[in-house]
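Narrative of accomplishments. A recurring question from our advisory board has been how the design workflow behaves on a single, concrete structure rather than in aggregate. To address it, we present the structure tokens for one chain from the evaluation set, followed by the sequence designed for it. No filtering or post-editing was applied between the two.
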């Protein structure tokens, strides 16, 4: 129904109809343009376009109501009423009533979106109402010749929004304008309304001028919480958003290329929005579109929504390719960090665009601009407070608030601990923020000067890390450690950790001394982590195993002589030994002596040492090898403790494993070493060198007491029982018993040595003690000195030596040469030797019997040997004494051939051999009734003989035959048994 024409619609219609009549092509152009907008540019944008109009009309606190009534979709809004300019814009298709300051437009070309659902749109306003009608437009055009033809060609299709008529309608109460759209039969009104409901929240966010959007009976409300937060209440939820708005004015250059309508507004604006949960924690978007201010088709992958006054293409779906677009997007990207700064510090990284392919050209430009700006803006929370720009930031690779607190003033740009969480890793990696790993932490604290308690806190913070990260454990081994002496050292493995809380114990005292290399951690820094990384507990045992402490002890005497106060070191070390086990190097510990000097512990005797009774007084004193421990000092320490570090009470043992050369600290050790090396036949050096100290310091008249002292020690006894040991060797040669070394004497009960050695005089020692001292109990040759002494004694005419004793002595000499104990020429040839009879004869007349059958014919005095028999090597003895062999002295020949007979056929020989278990010789024997041999002295009778050809001769008598048989059978020791069996066949009873 027509109403008053308050907007002059009749004139508008005449103008349009006149243009169509004068130019039929104009009708076609209008129809085509409207169809393009309806089918293309403004398709599916009905609610958006009408909401934009409502927002422009409202100015602020606007209300939009969308509903279905009487088969019509009706959209009512509050705010400015319809104006004549608005009507003109609605009917012009190409012109908008928007002017500077309008947000998005007011009844511009976007109104064409209504044609998607209706052919009869109307606008009812408190200022007047209008309507459009396809049917009435078609009637008007049919009356014009040119348009009439176009109608026929277009099958009745006309431009609906060119002819406008006044109507008589009013908007609902409380509203200023109501757009009414009768729905075509193919439009589902309910589905349309449901689609509008889905976008209601977005409209309130995009269009700040709207306070409420109603869709049917449902309502969506917007409430501002300050300048930055907006709450949108929908029928089913409450959505909270954080906003950041910026605006400005574009320069002329940025407006180039825009159409006339767009160039009218030089202002730009942008708004970033991110959804929040009830705790103000951002819920970043995964994917969105650019809103300008309503949704476009420019896809974005930013965590926040961008609403911006970006110039759009005519269909309002894409951003226009213009300088103004680039400028607005640049301004928006530059303002992004301001949005981020409005978020709680720990949640800010959630707004960092994560790596991925851009979803559009606009997305690519925005992402790059946002990241570039985020990298140089101070927005990341710093560990020391304040904000840090990513390009100068570093984040700890482990979550540890305490570690961040400790390092915040050490590592520039260190970020708050919350950013070390794994959930933040990807965002910070996108910003190229480096991570601070274990090695970096160690490097950062190297060289720091901090209180010991600070270091303890650092170790406490690092302890959980090293338990889970093996690589970190290796790196942490290089951590600095504050020492009790005030130094800070690098590296944990050589550090000792004090035990207990005492600050006066040995470890505490040692920690205050200047001991190079000794690293005792400050007690306030002694965290269990250090032990896990390789440090050791500084208990007595661990301290005594410390090489620096050992080195300090070894140099303690030199330090004392240089004037240093070494008593704190001395007393601390003794305190450690009291609770642990001693070490060999403790013998070098400087201790005070009774003369006011300091000496090595092993150069001092206890004030009441038993050893004082046997040592030469001249060997004790300031310039002597030994001194006496200060009595007052000795009284403060247990006797056994002092002995354990080397202070002498009795004779001390010295043991060295795997020696490689003689130890010159011990008397005559070089000589002993040489002799033992020769005697060992190459099996040298020994695996262990054991000896007794200070034997050479014993007074000459105190040896009996010294030997009693030595024999009282089980350990010393074990060593002395080996005659080749150094102490046994030395005592036997250099100790004095009765004015002579022990080896010069024999035990009184050793009668087999009578004549050669004299019995030891009475010195108050028993046989065991005498043996340990080296007094002889049996005939034995241990070295060339023994042999030379024995040869001299055998040639001494003042000695009465039994023949058997002399024989055994000669055997020992020969064996010593054969065994390598002696070498030829070891001594000067003797002038006198002991003969077979026991008499001493000149060596010029003596020979060594090497063949037993010659005994009966030799005239010279004999040094007897059973050559080739069970005795010994006659050649060795001859070489040793430089005497000729008997066989070399004369040429002897058997007289007569005798009767040659195989041994097995000689009477009684097989039987006698069988009885004695002797194999009958395979050869023959020449039997003589009387055997005679020619010599230089004439013919001599003998019982048996072996000629130069090796033939055996014997008298038929048992004496000769038995010796020849024993020789031929290699059973010389059985010669007397054979003689008895050959003489008496019944003599088998003698074998029982």
């Amino acid at each position: 129904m027509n109403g008053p024409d308050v907007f002059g619609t009749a004139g508008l219609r005449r103008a349009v109809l006149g243009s169509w009549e004068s130019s039929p092509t104009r009708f076609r152009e209008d129809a085509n343009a409207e169809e393009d907008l309806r089918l293309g540019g403004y398709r599916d944008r009905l609610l958006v376009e009408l909401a934009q109009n409502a927002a422009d009309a409202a100015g602020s606190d606007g209300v939009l109501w969308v509903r279905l009534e009487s088969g019509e979709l009706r959209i009512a809004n509050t705010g400015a009423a319809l104006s004549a300019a608005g009507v003109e814009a609605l009917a012009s298709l190409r012109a908008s009533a928007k002017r500077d300051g309008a947000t998005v437009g007011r009844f511009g070309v976007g109104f064409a979106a209504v044609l998607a659902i209706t052919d009869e749109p109307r606008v009812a306003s408190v200022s007047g109402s209008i309507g459009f009608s396809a049917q009435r437009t078609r009637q008007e055009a049919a009356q014009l010749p040119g348009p009439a033809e176009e109608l026929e060609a277009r099958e009745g299709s006309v431009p609906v929004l060119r002819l406008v008529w006044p109507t008589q309608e009013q908007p609902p109460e409380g509203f200023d304008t109501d757009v009414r759209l009768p729905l075509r039969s193919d439009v589902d009104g309910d589905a349309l309304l449901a689609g509008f409901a889905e976008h209601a929240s977005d409209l309130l966010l995009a269009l700040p001028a709207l306070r409420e959007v109603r869709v049917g009976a449902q309502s969506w409300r917007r409430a501002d919480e300050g300048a930055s937060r907006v709450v949108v209440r929908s029928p089913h939820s409450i959505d909270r958003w954080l906003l950041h708005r910026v605006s400005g004015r574009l320069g002329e250059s940025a407006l180039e290329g825009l159409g006339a309508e767009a160039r009218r507004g030089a202002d730009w604006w942008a708004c970033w929005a991110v959804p929040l949960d009830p705790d103000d924690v951002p819920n970043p978007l995964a994917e969105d579109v650019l809103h300008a201010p309503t949704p476009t088709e420019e896809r974005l992958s930013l965590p926040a929504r961008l609403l911006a006054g970006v110039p759009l293409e005519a269909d309002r779906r894409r951003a226009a390719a213009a300088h103004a677009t680039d400028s607005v997007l640049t301004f928006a990207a530059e303002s992004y960090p301001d949005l981020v700064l409005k978020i709680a510090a720990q949640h800010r990284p959630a707004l960092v665009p994560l790596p991925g392919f851009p979803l559009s050209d606009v997305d690519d430009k925005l992402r790059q601009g946002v990241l570039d700006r985020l990298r140089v803006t101070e927005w990341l929370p710093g560990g020391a407070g304040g904000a840090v720009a990513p390009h100068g930031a570093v984040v700890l690779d482990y979550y540890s608030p305490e570690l961040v607190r400790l390092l915040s003033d050490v590592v520039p740009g260190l970020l708050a601990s919350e950013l070390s969480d794994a959930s933040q890793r990807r965002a910070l990696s996108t910003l190229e923020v480096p991570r601070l790993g274990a090695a970096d932490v160690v490097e950062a604290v190297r060289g720091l000067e901090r209180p010991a308690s600070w270091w303890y806190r650092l170790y406490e913070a690092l302890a959980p890390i090293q338990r889970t990260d093996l690589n970190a454990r290796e790196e942490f081994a290089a951590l600095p450690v504050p020492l009790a002496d005030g130094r800070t050292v690098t590296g944990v493995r050589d550090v000792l950790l004090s035990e207990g809380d005492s600050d006066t114990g040995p470890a505490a005292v040692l920690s205050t001394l200047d001991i190079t290399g000794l690293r005792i951690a400050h007690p306030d820094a002694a965290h269990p982590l250090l032990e896990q990384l390789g440090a050791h507990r500084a208990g007595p045992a661990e301290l005594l195993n410390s090489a620096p402490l050992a080195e300090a002890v070894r140099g303690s005497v030199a330090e004392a002589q240089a004037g240093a106060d070494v008593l704190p070191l001395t007393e601390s070390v003794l305190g450690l030994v009291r609770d642990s086990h001693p070490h060999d190097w403790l013998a070098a510990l400087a201790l005070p002596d009774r003369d006011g000097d300091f000496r090595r512990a092993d150069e001092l005797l206890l004030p009441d040492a038993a050893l004082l009774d046997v040592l030469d007084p001249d060997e004790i004193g300031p310039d002597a090898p030994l001194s006496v421990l200060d009595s007052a000092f000795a009284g403060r320490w247990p006797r056994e403790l002092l002995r354990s570090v080397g202070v002498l009470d009795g004779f001390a043992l010295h043991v060295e494993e795997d020696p490689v050369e003689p130890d010159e600290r011990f008397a005559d050790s070089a000589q002993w070493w040489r002799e033992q090396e020769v005697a060992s036949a190459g099996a040298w050096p020994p695996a262990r060198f054991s000896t007794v100290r200070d034997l050479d310091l014993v007074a000459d008249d105190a040896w009996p007491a010294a030997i009693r002292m030595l024999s009282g020690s089980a350990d010393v006894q074990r060593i002395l029982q080996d005659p080749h040991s150094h102490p046994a060797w030395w005592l036997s040669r250099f100790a004095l018993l009765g004015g002579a070394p022990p080896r010069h004497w024999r035990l009184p009960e050793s009668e087999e040595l009578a004549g050669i050695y004299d019995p030891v005089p009475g010195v108050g020692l028993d046989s065991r003690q005498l043996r340990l001292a080296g007094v002889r109990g049996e005939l034995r040759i241990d070295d060339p000195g023994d042999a030379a002494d024995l040869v001299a004694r055998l040639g001494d005419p003042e000695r009465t030596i039994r023949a058997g004793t002399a024989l055994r002595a000669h055997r020992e000499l020969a064996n010593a040469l054969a065994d390598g104990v002696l070498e030829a020429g070891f001594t000067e040839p003797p002038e006198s030797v002991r003969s077979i009879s026991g008499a001493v004869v000149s060596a010029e007349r003596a020979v060594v019997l090497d063949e037993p059958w010659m005994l009966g014919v030799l005239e010279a005095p004999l040094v007897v040997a059973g050559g080739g028999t069970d005795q010994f090597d006659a050649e060795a003895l001859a070489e040793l004494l430089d005497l000729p062999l008997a066989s070399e002295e004369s040429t002897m020949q058997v007289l007569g051939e005798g009767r040659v007979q195989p041994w097995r056929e000689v009477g009684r020989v097989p039987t006698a051999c069988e009885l004695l278990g002797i194999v009958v010789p395979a050869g023959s024997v020449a039997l003589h009734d009387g055997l005679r041999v020619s010599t230089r002295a004439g013919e001599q009778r003998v019982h048996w003989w072996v000629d130069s050809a090796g033939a055996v001769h014997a008298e038929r008598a048992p004496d000769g035959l038995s010796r020849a048989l024993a020789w031929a059978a290699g059973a010389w020791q059985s010669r007397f048994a054979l003689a008895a069996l050959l003489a008496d066949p019944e003599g088998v009873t003698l074998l029982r």
